[in-house]
Amino acid sequence: MPYALFSKDDRLSKAYPTEADVWKVAKKSGLVVDVVSEDGTVGPRPVLDQDYEIRFCEAEAHDDPAKNKAEAEREAQTGLQLVS
Question: 3-state DSSP helix/strand/coil percent for the chain, to nearest 5?
């Protein structure tokens, strides 16, 4: 089952094959921040900013998770950022 980025009940991203793929897209989009525990015992770890979350989703008819992943990887290699 594919994954996507959500804010509350709104799906914000295309569907991707794995949760890790969505993390990559979220990080590239600036939606991932590094946090440190309040007592400083745990070093920085990535978390999604604000009310964002990654969860299972149903791929829409026009949505191909494998193709979306390939496009994201191609864009990352060329440095091109497209707005959808």
Answer: 30, 25, 45
